[in-house]
Design brief:
The complex is a heterodimer of chains A (251) and B (167). Chain A is α+β, with helices and mostly antiparallel strands and 251 residues long. Chain A has four helices and twelve strands, in the order ααααββββββββββββ. Chain A folds into two domains: 49 residues, no CATH class; 156 residues, Thrombin, subunit H (Beta Barrel), CATH 2.40.10.340. In chain A, the strands form two sheets. Chain A has a six-stranded antiparallel barrel. In chain A, strands 6-7-8-11-10-9 form a six-stranded antiparallel β-barrel. In chain A, a hairpin with a 7-residue loop joins strand 10 and strand 11. Chain A is elongated and about 105 Å long. The model of chain A has no long low-confidence stretch (mean pLDDT 82). With 167 residues, chain B is mainly alpha-helical. Chain B has one domain. Classes of the chains: A alpha+beta (251), B mainly alpha (167). Chains A and B meet through strand 1 of A and helix 5 and helix 6 of B.
Chain lengths: 251, 167
């Protein structure tokens, strides 16, 4: 009798609304415990088709680039105007000659490149050669159809450079290695690892403010003057196309 | 007929093929980005076969030619001149000079001499290069150049020497 009653009670429990109430309660507890995470996830999944996608991101990026280019152009014009006001050498960024590297000797006793543009295309001795990343060298000699570029890394090659943060000048000397040596003219260089090395803004031989490299090592105690080792931003070993800047070009 | 063909091959090789290699410096003929010492490869067989005077004149002409492809004031001429005299004097007394490894060894020693000459000239001309950075780099270049020249010379130079002898 007792057994039958027990079975009846259990049966009614299974059949009744107990489980519905239990599951509902558990669901509510789950929602409360997860702070509505399921709802939020579901909401985001439903919203996905109407959210800004990759195309919209591209438009925003493109708009941003256009804005930056316009600002850069305005700043360059402004800079050019101020340089003229200060009687500093002007540098026309639009007068460039693109040339392909036809022969490369970037690790030998002589570190040089041969490019496929020469005197016929307006290339002159002493003009500046840049690649993706910045300055790579200067034109050493010219033939009617080709030109020879002496790389910054060539042993003994020297160019005047400038560290903008400390506003100190130095002479960048090629050592043959990938990293030329920057010999400072001041006793106290104040240079730090990570400083950007550029051409001097008051330079008359090279176009001003051209990126050259980044300081990798500084020896302040060296005699007779402190020096730094510079990592070039443009790698001559990997560059197939270069641009020759017409330093003497007028706008 | 055979003699004529050899001469043609020699002219083609010396005047076109090797000069093409010097100008283009192909990547497949480089070790660590360093090319073989072409003046040594060209001068060695000629000096071994000819008199010191003839070799000296050739070395100066070759030096002028090779220097026209390089930048700066450093020259190949002094080292090539001394090497040509030494090689031609050695070659006139030695009958088994065309041995494969013998040529390679002479080319290696010649490359070391040329390398040291360039190194010394650079240090002499540019006082800023008197430091360990440049010296360690020079040793690296010298070793690489010696290895690649030592590998290339036994093929090029011994073949050139045999062709010179046949002519």
């Amino acid at each position: 009798m007792i057994k039958a009653r027990r079975e009846m009670g259990f049966h009614s429990l299974l059949k009744g609304r107990f489980w519905v109430i239990f599951l509902f309660g558990a669901l509510l507890f789950g929602i409360r415990w997860s702070k509505g995470a399921g709802y939020l996830d579901l909401y985001s999944v439903l919203l996905k088709p109407i959210l800004p996608g990759t195309a919209q991101r591209e438009w925003i990026k493109e708009g941003d680039n256009v804005e930056k280019n316009i600002r850069l152009k305005l700043l360059e014009d402004d800079n050019s105007r101020l340089r003229r006001a200060l009687s500093l050498k002007d540098f026309n960024t639009y007068q460039r000659i693109s040339a392909a590297v036809i022969s490369r000797s970037s690790r030998n006793w002589w570190q040089q490149l041969e490019i496929n543009k020469g005197a016929k295309d307006g290339v002159l001795k002493g003009q500046t050669v840049i690649g993706p990343g910045g300055l790579i060298g200067l034109i050493d000699s010219v033939t009617p159809m080709t030109a020879r570029v002496r790389l910054l890394t060539d042993p003994g090659h020297q160019v005047g450079v400038w560290i903008d943060r400390t506003q100190h000048h130095g002479i960048l000397t090629g050592m043959g290695t990938n990293r030329p040596k920057l010999i400072f003219l001041n006793k106290n260089s104040l240079a730090k690892i990570g400083d950007a090395v550029t051409t001097s803004p008051a330079s008359t031989l090279l176009p001003p403010n051209l990126t050259i490299g980044i300081v990798k090592f500084v020896n302040e105690k060296a005699l007779p003057s402190p020096y730094a080792i510079v990592q070039l931003t443009a790698s001559p070993e990997a560059i197939d196309w270069v641009q020759v800047l017409k330093n003497d070009a007028k706008k | 007929m055979m003699l004529k063909n050899n001469k043609k091959i020699l002219i083609f090789f010396v005047l076109i093929c090797l000069q093409f290699c010097i100008i283009t410096s192909p990547d497949w003929l480089k070790i660590n980005g360093i090319t073989p010492c072409w003046p040594v490869i060209l001068l060695l067989p000629f000096s071994l076969k000819n008199s010191p005077l003839k070799s000296a004149i050739t070395s100066v002409l070759l030096g002028i030619f090779i220097d026209s492809f390089t930048i700066g004031d450093v020259s190949y001429i002094p080292s090539l001149l001394l090497l040509s005299i030494a090689w031609s004097t050695y070659g006139l007394h030695n009958k088994k000079i065309e041995l494969f490894l013998n040529i390679g060894l002479i080319a290696i020693l010649g490359t070391v001499f040329v390398g040291f000459s360039i190194w010394a000239q650079k240090i002499f001309l540019y006082s800023d290069l008197r430091n360990n950075w440049f010296h360690s780099w020079s040793i690296f270049v010298l070793i690489s150049e010696v290895i690649i020249t030592g590998l290339v010379a036994p093929f090029f130079s011994s073949w050139l020497l045999l062709t010179y002898k046949k002519n």
